[in-house]
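=== RUN LOG ===
request id: a7f3
mode: sequence -> structure
chains: 1
length: 353
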Amino acid sequence: MPILCSSKCGKKAILKRPKTGDALCKECFFWAFETEIHFTIVQAKLFQEGDYVAIGASGGKDSTVLAYIMKTLNDRYDYKLKLVLLSIDEGITGYRDDSLETVKRNRDQYGIPLKILSYEDLYGWTMDKIVAQVGLKNNCTFCGVFRRQALDRGAMQLGVTKIVTGHNADDIAETIIMNILRGDIARLQRCTAITTASEDMISRCKPFKYTYEKEIVMYAYFKKLDYFSTECIYSPNAYRGYARAYIKDVEKIRATAIIDIIHSGEQMTVGDKAKARCPEQGNCKECGYISSQEVCKACVLLAGLNKGLPQLGVGKSSKHKKTLEELQGKMVKRQEVNTPLSYPVKIEVDGDQ
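=== RESULT ===
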């Protein structure tokens, strides 16, 4: 016997929501998914009328659904936001070049302009070249640090007031577990915050903070959204993968594990001793971009690559401290590369003249 939709609309249910366990028809799932994200945006006061918002776009499921949702909710609820897609090309042959083609199609499908910045232009290195130097053990450290700064640099070039990223509930729960396992309790409040900002930095927002990854996949599937589904070829040994596997195992026993972990991270009180280990945000004296250290991690890693010391700045680099101090005085200020916006191309529909 077919199961009817839990919302009592009279239609047959076609899915069971991982987040609530409700059996819903397609239309009621779309409404619930979109309304919950709208509630998160309104409740957290993520945007103000007239904000210029950069959507971090990689072509994957999270960023594709984010772009679609931001466009949909902006039109439906009249947020009065100006939207732009911001993509970072890490230089991973056979992965990022293909996913950027998806982003370009999203640009045309949603009518949102696109800006692409590359590691090659910004740092003089691609991830292919970095992996050839450092191997597969610590490559995600380089990519994560460079990518975060590249997003900030692109946002500053565009003059946006907010950046939105597709970090979902699963991602945040994984970050909490990783910080606990590393003994980095001081970062829990920052990593669970729905918005991170200071006077000198552009606010970063996570509209998907309470949205399950499974539901994002289901939404993309039933909406038939155009996204790139291949995993990064350099990430099989990433530390995050072990945290993800652990959470999935716990979730089998306790369905609410992901949200429970997030709420635990939010409510944990951090003592003064732990807070002292988490420096205040400032600006790097070398490149001028956001950093919690005198010289930002991006500059340290880049200096190591350029001097043939790729492990410099990876992990606890106390053994490289003297070398790092010597390099800091010899660092050359990087030239800013500004790439143009690409605008949507009108997609012809059958019947158009």
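=== NOTES ===
The chain has 14 helices and eleven strands.
The CA atoms of residues 347 and 353 lie 12 Å apart.
=== END ===
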